[in-house]
Amino acid sequence: MTPPRFAFIKANWHADIVDQALVGFQELIPNVDVFDVPGAFEMPLLAKRLAPQYDAIACAALVVDGGIYRHEFVADAVVKGLMDVGLQTDTPILSVSLTPHHFQETAHHTAIYRDHFKVKGREAAKAALSITGVYQNMHAAA
Questions:
Q1: What CA–CA distance (Å, rounded) separates 68 from 32?
Q2: How many C-beta atoms lie closer than 10 Å to residue 80's C-beta?
Q3: DSSP strands (E only) in the chain
Q4: Which residues are designated catalytic?
């Protein structure tokens, strides 16, 4: 049985925070192919194109309130898009796409979210290992 292949897609907006999800992910899964996209909205399409090559894909983005309501629509579209990709391709698509209620670009808030994204990256890695294990067991039992 070949070891599972993992991809990690990350949005470049707020990269200093979002990149911490990759750091956390790589603590558990060091061999992961990494892909950068301009923003969260571009993640579902790239995930769909990558899905045939990978056993699971994690996607990370921070969508913040810039003073308009659009951020909620973007976050909703991204998460639904990632879910649709998983359902269409049978490849687990894991989301570390967060939309905080109150985000201010202060050193204090940035530090909080950097730490939080690292934790969420580890959680995504645990989920990726778990679900690929389930799929391997299903195939072995068949």
A1: 35
A2: 11
A3: 6-11, 33-37, 56-62, 93-98
A4: 70
The 10s digit of each residue's pLDDT in 56-114 is 999 999 987 666 657 677 778 889 999 999 999 999 999 998 877 667 778 888 898 89
CA distance 136 to 66: 43
pTM greater than the 0.90 cutoff: yes
**Length of the chain (residues):** 142
E strand segments, 5-131: 6-11, 33-37, 56-62, 93-98
Go through 40-64 and write b for each residue having 16 or more CB atoms within 10 A of its CB, e for each that does not. bbbbbebbbebbeebbbbbbbbbbb
Q: Are 25 and 126 in contact (CB under 8 A)?
A: no
Quick check: 25 and 53 in contact, CB under 8 A?
no
- Cα 98 to Cα 34, 51, 95, 101, 120: the distances in Å are 19, 22, 8, 10, 10
